Amino acid sequence: MSKLRWVGLGLGVLAVCLLAGAQSGSDRPGGYHVGQSVTLPGGGGWDYLGIDVPGRRIYVSASTEEDVVNADTFQVVGKVEGLKGTHGVAISGKDGHGFTSNGGGNSMTEFDLKTLATIKEIPLPIQRPDGIIYDPATDRVFAFNHDSKAVAVDAKTGEVAGTVDLPSKASEYAVADGRGHVYNNMEDSSVEIEIDAKTLKITHQWPLAPCEGPSGLAMDTQTRRLFIGCHNGMMAMMNADTGAIVATVPIGPGVDANRFDEGTKLAFSSNGGGTGTITVAHEDSPGKLTLVGNIPTEAGARTMELDPKTHTLFTVTAKFEPAPPRPAGEAAPAGRGRGPRRQMVAGSFHLLVIPNH
Predict the structure, then answer these.
(1) Which of 29, 136, 151, 318 has the smallest number of CB atoms closer than 10 Å to its CB?
(2) What residues does each domain of the chain span?
(3) Per-residue pLDDT tens for 70-94?
């Protein structure tokens, strides 16, 4: 039997196992389970994770640093230091550079992927950059914020290429399709936008109903389907060419990241609310998305990364002291994450390694 047929047979068997797991309500959907916990040096808060697949490194955004973990041994191998409120990292393997979005410094930090040494800090013409991605079609790094602006930086030169005016304030995660388009969630207006990565113009805006409060975003670039984590408890699958929502599945509360594995056709959402879960869904076809199950994680594990080589998932969280009491007579503020800030327990920041075997 040819290697190609063996691969096809293997994926077919995997799909049968996944569906069986969904029907039985397994808490190890697709074989996924928390395999180990790795203590990380960072503290004081965290946000997105990133991965350098060829370099075999996981990056964890941790306030003033990016904690760097070997993707095969899960050992901490270094840091990108001197950051100001970092939210994420984008990797340009073509140029050998990484870029962090520094919300507290209104900047990006460009660093060397091999040595982790800072190359330079890039002042940005936008405030509080948050989500950050790399677009291979234009060799540009895009950063987004919650003030109706995005910025593009040339990954080779580290120079600002231009900005994008966004249609609403609450911009969440983005993804590139590799063909010169970037997609971005508008959280407050529940709209998906398509950006021409070369001209920096918005080419489409699509309403996401029934999805409300879109946060995490991932893409199957083969079938042209976007997977959107929505704060009203669903993952929506959208046609990236027409903007049509073609399927939805329920997810846990507190979603903040989505990933898609083209090797297994599995879509994931990391949900930090409640006790913490990662929802697993299978793209059966371009028009059908099936819930496989939910992986128990830990409370607060809201962001995530996927290693497409090994199919391993990674998420992070920490332990926190009890919230301080609210002053007598003071009403609870409206909005997600606006309660009294709790202090992280020292030494409790950790990475959860979630294999599928």
Answers:
(1) 136
(2) 18-43+213-320+345-357, 82-207
(3) 999 999 999 999 999 999 999 999 9
